[in-house]
Every structure is written in C-alpha cells, then in structure tokens.
Amino acid sequence: MKKHFFAAVSCIFISGSIYAQKDAKFSEEMKQEMCSKVRAAAQHAWKGYKDYAWGEDDLKPLTKTAKTWYKKSMLMTPVDAFDTFTMLGLTTEAKEAKELILSKLDFNIDNDVQVFEITIRLLGGLITAYEMDGDKKFLALAKDLADRLMPAFNSKTGIPYRYVHLQTGKTRDGINNPAEIGTLMMEFGKLSRITGNKKYYNAAKKGMMYVYNHRSSLDLVGEQIDVETGKWINNRSHIGAYIDSYYEYLYKSWLLFGDKDFKTAFEVHNAAIKKHYISKTDKGWFMQQVDMNTGKVIDTKYGALEAFYAGLCAFAGDVETGRQIQEANYYMWTRFNIEPEEFDFKADTITAAYYILRPENLESAFYMYRMTGELKYLWQGKVMVESIIDHCKHDVGYASLKNVQTFEKMNSMESFFFGETLKYAYLIFAPESTLDFKKVVLTTEAHPFKIEKK
Ligand code: DMJ
C-alpha cells in the first residue's frame, strides 16, 4: 500500500519540482482508466453497504455493522448515492438504490433532526433523483420532508433553528451558524420552483439574507448567531466549518435562480474574503481565521473543508486566486500522505490528523481543471484518487482514516463519500458532457440541480 504512495509522489518530485509532471500528457486511455477505477470503487463501497448495512443509514466498515443517525433509518447512503450511480453509468446500483428508497423511506419519525444535514443530503438527493429519473415518488418524498422541516424557520428573525422534530415541528438549538442557515437555499428554493409554492424559497431566503444584512463593517460574518435576538455570539470569521457553504450558496443560488440579491451578497462577501482571509505563502495561498469586526488574525488553521474555496473562486470567475489556493490544497494533501482534517499552516504541523473521506480538495481540482483545462489538475486528481483507493479501501467498503500519517483506519464511511467524493473523482476524468455547467449547478453535496431557463 505505502509503496504506491511513494511511487506516485516520487514521479511528481522529479526534476526538483512538485509539478514536474504538470504538463505531461494525460491520454484519453488514462482518463478512461481512472473512470473505471472510480466505478469499481463505487461498486465495492456499495457492496459493503448492501452486505452489512442494507436499509440503514451508513456502513461501519471495520465492524461490518450499520450506523443509524436517528431512531429510524433515513437511508442516507442510498439517497446520497443514487445520482452518482446514475452519472457513473452504474445502472444496477442505481436501480437497487431507487427500489430501496421508494419502498422504505418514510419521514414520519419520532425524532428531531439536524435541518442542515438532512437538507443537503436527503432533500437535495431526492430533488436531483426526481429531476434525473422523473419518478414523481421522489418528489413526493422531497415535499413531505421539506414540509416537516419548515417549522424550523419559525423564529423572530426568520433564521432557522438547528433542529426540528419531524412529527411535532418542535424546534431546538437556537444558536445557529451561517453554513447551517444559508445552505438550505438551493434545496428549498428549487422545491419552490418545481412545485410553484413560493413558501420554501421565501423562508430560506429570509434566514440567509438576515445573516447577510447583519454582516460586520468589514463585510464578514461570524461563526454563531442567536436565531431569536439576531445577535452574533461568536466573532470568528473564516472559510471553514460553520461558515463555508453559506458563501458557496450565495453564488450558486444566483446561478440557479437568477436572483440578483444573491449575486450582490456574494460579491460583497467575496471581496472581503480575499482581503481578510487569504495568507500568501511559498506553498500557496492558505486561508486564516480572523475577527469579523477588526480583521485581526485569530488563528492559522487550514484543512480539508476549507479546500473547497479554490474551486468556488475559480468557478465565480477568479481563476488566478483559485490557482494559488489550489497550490496550497495540493501541498496539504501531499505533505501528509493524504490531507488531514486540519493543520496549522504557519507551523506546518497537524492539529487534527483524521481524514473522513472528504471531497473538497478533489472538488477544487475538478473545478480548476474545468475552468483552465490545465493538465496539472488531472495529475493532482490522479494522485488524490489513487491515494484514497489505496489507503482507505477495506475488505468491506471504504474506511475513514484515524491518522493520515499512520494510515490507521476508522470505523466510518460517510454518505458524502458516494454523493461527493466518488462523483468528483469521476467527473475530473469523465467527458465534459457528463456534467454540463450550462445546464446544472452542483449543490454543496454535489447533487446537480437543473438551471431553469430565465
Ligand atoms: C458535505 O456534507 C458537504 O460538502 C458540506 O458542505 C461540508 N461537509 C461535507 C463534506 O466534507
């Protein structure tokens, strides 16, 4: 296993340059070979789920058991995976996932659920399944779920609570964050466009815009806000966990809905992001944590989640900044075998050594390749995909790593491994027609939503 890693890295370090291979030819055969590897990985992961976690949320690969998030399974893995199987041409797997979803999924559950996770994985997955497959039962499930989540928005500010009970509508946890507030816009908005009922769009937009309208004088947002008083209670500002996809959804909601409020908000924030978060180093441009009111640097941590911004930045038109940040992303990946959850880029030391099969670094390599056509991003993709296949593959499914430096495995295979990681791994090498940016926008969970003609 290790042998492969060193083989891959040594070919990249020849001539004293980390990118000695960056312009080397990447033939059609090589692309097809990578696509086949990813398809085989998806089949292996799904077989593990089928054999040991069928009908449950996720597979726990090391113990060969299942994980259920709440009192009853909500089929996280099949719902997140269905569109990936369809995109990869895995028709048998797509059919199995569809049959399971339509025969078993029922949201009448006596449990409160996390609105954000359920929205991005399940509501998004079901909406895409409906748009891809056309079966109205997917839409009925999506609508039932959204209606059960809607009471979350009942607060003085319109900002949603973090948790809502699926049967009673009772809410809890009124300290929310920009990511969990804003990353409902595409899914709820899209449901409004499909059903013609504006209530979903309006509710999601109200919460998201409240955050934007209460940005600091530096045009930044903080990490936590009180949904009733609208007061910021944590001033840390950055591109990572709890904020990340709020910024992402402003841009993508503009693309999806053509609503200029989102465009303006994204542009205002994006200028501030570039001014205050970016830290330029000889390894590339990393992104730091600052105080939302003063801009003072609080921390210099960077990690797997932050890596998405290179792709978003390029996708939104600034390829040069995206390029510099992707240099940093790829440094983070190769410096520690596989990227860690988090490291301190100033000290160059790991602060959280695990890797839970996250997609963001691959996601950015994919966007950078699509935006520039530069072969170095295919090479980056190959190194990253092969290191995941070599080091995370288990006899049953794929496993997260407890420590990227020792390759010790951890007992989890998150559903986003199917929804996102394998999808981006495939899309980097697949023909452009597999996913046409003129026709679809990918949600934060990489579920493609059709752009309506304006
Ligand atoms: C996914 O569920 C989404 O990409 C989310 O925006 C961030 N976390 C995971 C993947 O890392």
Question: What can you see in these coordinates?
Answer:
- By secondary structure, this protein is of the alpha+beta class.
- 50% of the residues lie in helices and 13% in strands.
- It has 16 helices and 20 strands.
- A three-stranded antiparallel beta sheet has the order 3-4-5.
- A hairpin with a 5-residue loop joins strand 12 (289-291) and strand 13.
- The longest helix is centred in the first third of the chain and has 26 residues, at 28-53.
- Bound molecules: 1-deoxymannojirimycin.
- Residues 120, 245, 305, 358-360, 416, 420, 444-445 line the site of 1-deoxymannojirimycin.
- 1-deoxymannojirimycin binds at residues 120, 245, 305, 358-360, 416, 420, 444-445.
The CATH class designation of the domain at 107-269 is: Mainly Alpha
Radius of gyration: 21 Å
Q: Could you describe the largest sheet, including whether it forms a barrel?
A: 3 strands, antiparallel
Helix fraction? 40-55%
Q: What is the oligomeric state here?
A: single chain
Overall pLDDT, averaged? Answer: 95
Bound molecules: 1-deoxymannojirimycin
CATH architectural name of the domain at 107-269: Alpha/alpha barrel
Structural class: alpha+beta
In CATH, the topology of the domain at 107-269 is named Glycosyltransferase
Which keywords apply here?
alpha+beta, Glycosyltransferase, binds 1-deoxymannojirimycin, three-stranded antiparallel beta sheet, 454 residues, disordered N terminus
Give a quick precis of the structure:
By secondary structure, the chain is of the alpha+beta class. The chain has helices at residues 2-13, 28-53, 76-87, 91-104, 115-133, 136-149, 178-182, 185-195, 199-213, 244-257, 260-276, 308-315, 319-335, 360-372, 376-392, 416-429, and strands at 58-60, 65-67, 112-114, 163-165, 171-172, 175-176, 224-226, 232-234, 236-237, 278-281, 284-287, 289-291, 297-299, 301-303, 342-344, 349-352, 400-403, 408-410, 440-442, 448-450.
